[in-house]
Sequence to fold (232 residues):
Amino acid sequence: MNRSDNEVAVITGGSAGLGLALATSLIDKGWSVVTDARDADRLHAALPGSARVTTLSGDVRDLDHQDAIAAAVARHGRLDLLVHNASELGPMLPLAEVPESLFSRVLETNLLAPLTLTQRLLPYLIASRGTLIGISSDAAVEHYPTWGTYAASKAALDHLILTLGEENGIRAYAVDPGDMRTAMHQDAFPGEDISDRPLPESVVPHLLALLAGDEPTGRYRATDLAPTGATR
Fold:
């Protein structure tokens, strides 16, 4: 997947975890990457400035911040990949106990922000016949106690991503990366040792295989996608 024509990706939530791992890999392969995070210091430490990376600090829910992302894409003049990776876990409570305000906040981050950002960037994706990816979860299709808020947002995100693909003739994928050793996963299991979970970097080859392949629009588990160069 080494590129010579300077393909451009937008990856939300690029300061850590899967977002950082994917951004780093694409940059190494010659892509230009626009990415963001709420914590400016952490973002800039993770991805020091270079000709191939644009880092924007801000909240993906904020429409002015989305405009800044769109302006960065406009400067490149193209967009080949949009990955909605930024996510909020929300309250780990039974749904009967979740305050409406907290449920709404999770939906704003995990569902509404991906919709409005995609709307801004869609003309570029269509022009390049690009790829739209939403990072999902097994919680979107399973029913785990106390995970309902996050799960509902991811189930809705799956539907949003795949519908956008069908409506606009672009490749669109909802991808369940599986459990990973990330800060958000640790937050879901406070006090527990999650060192047995795979690192986010282990998921990246599966995502690259999806980008390089010709899989139809749909929902996929990363572990079901053979890494580039491997056989299924």
User: Anything to note?
Assistant: The chain has a mean pLDDT of 91. The chain has one domain: 8-224. Strands lie at 8-11, 32-37, 53-57, 81-84, 131-135, 171-176, 218-221. The CA atoms of residues 88 and 190 lie 16 Å apart.
